[in-house]
Specification:
Layout (H helix, E strand, L loop, with lengths): L1 H7 L8 H13 L5 E5 L5 H12 L5 E4 L19 H10 L6 E4 L3 H7 L4 E6 L5 H11 L3 E9 L7 H12 L4 E7 L2 E6 L8 H11 L3 H4 L7 H12 L8 H7 L7
Parallel strand pairs: 1-2, 1-4, 2-3, 4-5
Antiparallel strand pairs: 5-7, 6-7
């Protein structure tokens, strides 16, 4: 993990170190068959972490999907041809991962239409609007392998999509088992056969996380007292870093030894 982080830290992006290390843990220890699919790559920061870990453990290629022309990251009116794609390719090549990454310079919805491979880890860090996050989740969920993991970036930042999809479609569904937050990453394990065993755990987390929804639904920056109230409610949502052994233990059914 230290080696993977040393390569990851040199790539420009918005993934903090403890988030990157947790993402590496998900890549290494998710107990499911399939490949790792990343939605939203930008310049390759999370891609390098995922691919370094996947390469080390022989877990196959990382599929990285991004049109590389986000209007959030680029001023498209002034620079209509702006793109992060070449920077992304340079990051992958510098890390020695060109053969480990399968890039798709396309909108995720286009890729989802023709997707037919099982997914063990679904990392969603693309369009943070509700419509965008919902489309990414719905488009690839049918291919998520049982016991696989879905994770959203920026679920505890002021974006309407990741947190709402996580609360409504995951924490409220018996198709999912253990779930939680690490910094701004929301994660859950797909358990279509026994997710009901984790209903109480999910409901407890949903009770706290759902209180953030009224603050982020507009997608605008919070100010003053409203911002303070949001930060207080976010503080009440458990989101501390977690040790690998502790995370693995969360994946055990409540009635298991």
């Amino acid at each position: 993990m230290n080696d993977a982080w040393e390569h990851t830290r040199t790539v420009h992006g918005y993934l903090a170190e403890e988030e990157a290390r947790f993402l590496g843990l998900l890549a290494a220890c998710t107990p499911a068959e399939g490949l790792t699919l990343e939605i939203g790559s930008y310049k390759g920061r999370s891609t390098v972490m995922l691919a370094k870990v996947s390469s080390h453990y022989g877990l196959g290629k990382v599929v990285a999907v991004d049109p590389h022309n986000s209007p959030i990251l680029f001023d498209r009116e002034s620079h209509p041809q702006a793109s992060s794609y070449q920077d992304f390719l340079d990051s992958i090549r510098t890390a020695g991962l060109s053969e480990q990454v399968e890039p798709h310079q396309s909108p995720s919805t286009d890729v989802a239409h023709s997707w037919n491979r099982p997914i063990r880890l679904l990392w969603i860090d693309g369009d943070h609007s509700y419509e965008g996050a919902k489309a990414d989740f719905d488009g690839f969920l049918p291919h998520l392998a049982p016991r696989g993991i879905v994770a959203f970036h920026d679920a505890l930042n002021v974006f309407p999509g990741p947190i709402r999809v996580f609360v409504e479609d995951i924490l409220g569904s018996d198709r999912f088992g253990p779930a939680g937050f690490v910094h701004s990453i929301a994660w859950a394990q797909f358990r279509p056969d026994d997710g009901h065993l984790f209903r109480k755990r999910r409901a407890s987390l949903a009770d706290r996380a759902s209180r953030l929804l009224p603050f982020v639904q507009s997608g605008t920056e919070l100010q003053g007292l409203t911002k303070r109230h949001y930060k207080f409610r976010r503080f009440l949502v458990p989101h501390s870093p977690i040790a690998p052994q502790r995370w693995a233990a969360l994946l055990v059914a409540p009635d298991a030894p």
